[in-house]
Amino acid sequence: MLDFKLSGEEPKKEVSRGLYDIIIVGGGPAGLTTAIYSARDGMSVLVLEKEGAGGLAASTELIENFPGFPEGINGADLMERFREQAERFGAEIVEFEEVTQVEPRQAGQIKVHTSMDQVYEGKAVVIATGSQPKKLNIPGEAEYYGRGVSYCATCDGPLFKGKKVVVIGAGNSGLQEGAMLLEYAESVDFIEFLPHSPAEQILQDRTMNHPKSRFFFNHMATGIKGDGKRVTAVAFKDRNSGEEKELSTDGVFIYVGYSPYTNFVEDLLALNKWGYIVTDPKMQTSVEGIYAAGDVRANNPAQVTIAASDGTKASLAIREYLQELKD
Description:
CATH superfamily of the largest domain: FAD/NAD(P)-binding domain
Mean pLDDT: 92
Low-confidence stretches: 1-9
CATH architecture of the largest domain: 3-Layer(bba) Sandwich
Shape: elongated
Radius of gyration: 22 Å
Largest sheet: 7 strands, mixed
Number of domains: 2
Strand content: 25-35%
């Protein structure tokens, strides 16, 4: 006979998964570099990544300014090398397990809770969760996400071969991804809020002189229109004259900046007014034993080389810190 419980299911119990020298939250360039240095130094290292290892860098079609690759390298390929190097030295990498809470040191350990009802304990923790694309929050953006609205040309660009595309944002990310879209699309129109492009000159040269591109500076997007199934147009206006305009399009790629992924530590660590983690030069946060590295850190340019540098600094600082704990 089956035994049914009328009172409902019992709540899930969290399972403790043991003690590590270092737990790294985030598997992008900063997190993986920390893992490489720390595991090579003989520390027990766990990397927890809520998606696939590699972070935003893995979704970049071509990285041309990482030393050692004169012809450039695909972002996913570069991040796979980072991962292989970390695992070679013994780092444990767990993907698709999101961290939901970090508890400050108690009885000598820091506890890290995840969405899979697991609890990991570490002597030190590194927050390297990076950032995520900002939303415009205009009509139609959420409705047509995945149906013409995208934040990743590397992921979705090939779907728009021979079609009209609009890129909102003409900074580094917008022009870098837009350059790739120009290889596929019939045309690419760029809408930029500022009266100029803040992107690197090499990216401006590649896109602004391209026969398939047009630029609308000092304009702002006001809405994304569709037929109920797919995107059909973008509404925008001239910031000087106020003139309302519309572009017919098959796809909209949005690059208007990034926001840090820090919601799970916002009540624990000191953050700046934009939500980025404040650290000292050794990557130490406001809470003992918890460090931060990469794009999630305040006043930090979003570059792979800088994220890797942060990871190196965090590892070296933690080595000293763990030695002090031992002493």
